[in-house]
Amino acid sequence: LGSGEELACPFLGNVFYLWNVPYTSHDCGFLGFAVLPTMPSMDQSICFLAERGMAKHITFLPVGCESIQLPDCVTFVVANSLSEINKAAPGSQFNVRVVEGRAAVMMIGKYLQLDWQNMRRLYELKFVLQKSFDEMIDQMHDRFREPTPITRKEIQGFLEASDEEFESIVLSPTTKDMTKFQVRDRSLHVYGEAGRVEKACHLGTDINAANELGRLMNESHASCRDLYECSCPELDELTEVCKAGGALGSRLTGAGWGGCAVSIVPNGKVDSFMAYVREHYYAKNPERLARIDSALFATKPGSCASYVKL
Question: What is the pTM of this model?
Answer without folding.
Answer: 0.89
